[in-house]
Amino acid sequence: MSIRWSVVLFGLIFFAGTLSAAEHEVGQKNKNFTVESLKIKVGDIVSFPNYDSFYHNVYSLSPVKIFDLGSYAKGQTQKVKFEKAGKVTVQCAIHPDMKMTIDVQ
């Protein structure tokens, strides 16, 4: 196979992988996440809209995906892309009882 065809093949595989990524929503309402658990695929994106009238701070210290979205107000949404498989525990730094799990497959 020539180098040119290898580049074309790689581009098609990469492009096909980006088409299969999905976006999921986990809202924050009444000091809770709208789901307790979520199954997604590697490469998927999860959006975290704030539906409450007060601030939330979504974060994870799980080795699979460490992130901190900072504090944000009602009507704002933050997004996270999950690149590795495994279980991710997600919490709110402002409301310690808020907790959910994302299973990245």
UniProtKB/TrEMBL annotation:
Keywords: Copper, Metal-binding, Signal
Pfam families hit by this protein: Copper-bind (PF00127)
Span of domain Blue (type 1) copper: 26-104
The keyword Transmembrane helix is annotated on this UniProt entry: no
Keyword Glycosyltransferase: no
Signal peptide: 1-21
Coiled-coil features, chain-numbered ranges: none
InterPro entries found in the cross-reference section: BlueCu_1, Cupredoxin, ET_Amicyanin, MauL
Origin: domain of life: Bacteria
Protein name (record): Methylamine utilization protein
Species, as recorded: Leptospira yasudae
